[in-house]
Amino acid sequence: MTVVIGSAVLVGMAVFIIVFVAYYQQRQAKQQLALKEIQEQHRRELMAATFRGQEAERQRLAEDLHDSIGTMLSVTKMSLNQLNRQLDDAENRRGQLHKTRDMLDETMSNVRRISRDLVPTTLQRFGLLASLEELADRATNDELRVVLDCPSPVDHLPQALQLAFYRISQELLNNAIRHARAETITIQLYCVGPDARLSVIDDGVGFDLDTILEDKKAGLGLRNIESRLSVVDGHVTFDVAPGRGSRIHAQVSLDTPLLVTLTN
Predict the structure, then answer these.
(1) Whole-model pTM above 0.70?
(2) With contact defined as beta carbons under 8 Å apart, do 195 and 248 qualify?
(3) Inter-axis angle of helices 2-64 and 91-118, to 10 degrees?
(4) How far, in Å, CA of 94 to CA of 87, rounded?
(5) How many Å apart are CA 171 and CA 223, to the nearest integer?
């Protein structure tokens, strides 16, 4: 009888130890998962703060370009125009003056372009669709056609997502213009159910994704795209290869709590 009781006690203790260890391991796993979630949330908050800081710095630089340098160039051009009226008819003097004025005009155009690239005022005033139309129009020329395909209404997209999609479009379009040697680039923007999707497609020479990402300088733009999307809980898909056009897709769920938090 004593042996039976002792065996029962030992079995009970063994069961208790097993249950306790399992409970402890489960609790540890939950704590580690919670810690990872906190760390991931903190990382995203840091990335969001970084991008907000970048946009604020762009705003400051754009204002300085417009208010300071742009104003001084305008005043300088007015002074040249006055000087032109005071000069005699010496052809060489007038020729040099006109050349200087043309250089000023070009510089003023560049200042306006840089300011517009730094802060997309069209996005702030008229929304994402109008800003992408402007982006496509500026990039189109005799050798390159940039097409905007937007079959879905996008006015309802949160401001944080509109800014992210604009910056991503800007980055991918610039990359395609510089490196793809494409004849046509298409920017697609549409909403399917709860998801918003942005695609930039070109018919250029393509590239090797792994090689680009291994190069810290060359792959910085693509990594910035991934970072921007991580802030709004989105993801990017690279359908690329050397020797053929590139198809890059960015997708974000409009129901993600992160997007709601950034919007509020």
Answers:
(1) no
(2) no
(3) 160
(4) 8
(5) 11
